[in-house]
Amino acid sequence: MTTFEHVISSHRDRNVIQIAIQRPDKRNALASAHWAALEAALDEAAVSDAHILVLSGVPGAFCAGADIDELGRLLASPQAFADNNALVQRTQLKLQRIKQTTIAVIDGACVGGGLGLALACDLRLATARSRFAITPAKLGLVYSAADSARLVHAVGMARARELLLTGRLLDAATAADWGLVSTLCADADALEQARASLLDNLGATSGQARAGIKTVLAHLGGDLAVDAAAAEAAFAAAFHSDDFAEGAAAFLGKRPPTFTGALR
């Protein structure tokens, strides 16, 4: 296990990297040092050969966003505020672009930068007691273009407008109905079962293929770093991959495939 700043812990179980935010006394609110720690954990994951990354919080709090105790210091220094904003956006973008399939496991508060992290993940599981909000308008601030784009892709323009302009707090059922949540679970036990089931389902698929699919979706989602040529290259490369050779052989042999780095 690797621990960053005594708040962000990362460990690997088979081909799954688990990154946990553990600051229960602050409802997992993050100051600059914690965002830097999360970025370091993502950098470590990015160079590994793991195929899945799970991001979680503590019971009752995924992430409550910015640490208000740091706000006074940031207000006193425009450069510090700018540096913090750049760090947050860079970390979320790294999570969005990381090669692994990413899962946000949400129980409780998922607000501001916390929801930004969840939106940067590929899949989101949540308990019924979870709550979701993006509140920059209540602070006189504007949500970044990158964050706003992720929100629009998840819920559509009309609902993104409502969330951003009003700062409305959504209950879990509404969040699931709007598309913020992939799977809604009754409680923490059901959340753990859903997480395990999702890992089993992903474990039966090709990690190489999922990475290529993410490239194609990034292009379709408007990521300027991924052009049409990169998306086409990801599509074409799959036909020459070891996993396709195994998948085709397994299909013809009427047996389950054993992909590179399979979870099982």
TrEMBL record:
Ranges that cross the membrane:
none
CDD domains per record: crotonase-like (cd06558)
Q: In Gene Ontology terms, what is one molecular function of this protein?
A: catalytic activity
Which InterPro entries does UniProt cross-reference here? ClpP/crotonase-like_dom_sf, Enoyl-CoA_hyd/isom_CS, Enoyl-CoA_hydra/iso, Enoyl-CoA_hydra_C, Enoyl-CoA_Hydratase/Isomerase
GO terms under biological process: isoprenoid catabolic process
Q: Which Gene3D superfamilies match?
A: 2-enoyl-CoA Hydratase, Chain A, domain 1, Lyase 2-enoyl-coa Hydratase, Chain A, domain 2
Q: Which family does it belong to?
A: Belongs to the enoyl-CoA hydratase/isomerase family.
Question: Per its record, how is this protein called by name?
Answer: Enoyl-CoA hydratase
In its UniProt entry, the species of origin is given as Stenotrophomonas koreensis
